[in-house]
Each structure stands twice: as structure tokens, then as C-alpha cells.
Amino acid sequence: MTNEEITVETARERLEDLVRTAAVGGRTRIRASHGEIAYLIGAQELADLEDWAAVGQHEVSRRSGTLKPGIPFEEALTQLGLRQER
To answer: Which CATH class, in words, describes the domain spanning 1-41?
Structure first.
């Protein structure tokens, strides 16, 4: 995985290359002149981060006793279009 820090100006010049790098797992830290920081990451890494956030929220809800009841497995399959309703 490639990790680097660059300025916004450099990011503008290299955007296409940076997007390709992010798409294969690289990450770029972009620093603005006023100190703001942003990261350019790939879609898979974003999906993984969202999954971890959902798992964390689930655990917080479970531990605090605010976890809402789920739905039965068969109903979930039906809602996802993986099983016909009877």
C-alpha cells in the first residue's frame, strides 16, 4: 500500500494517478495551506471503514441495551429477493 502526503496543488496535478493508486489500496494524505487534512482512499477501503463503523455502532447499542430487535432470517431473505413469499 502506498502512503504519502502531498499538497493540494500537487494533488491537482496528479489527480488521475492518485485515483488509480487509491483504487488499488493506496492512500494519500492531502494537506491544504491552512492546515486542513483530507485523505484520498479507494472505494473498497471506504466500504471496509463503513462496515467497521456499523459493527462498532451495533456493539455500542448492544452494550447500552438499546439494540433493536432484528428480523427473522427467512423474512430477510424474502426482503432481499432471495426467496419467494409464501
So the answer is: alpha beta
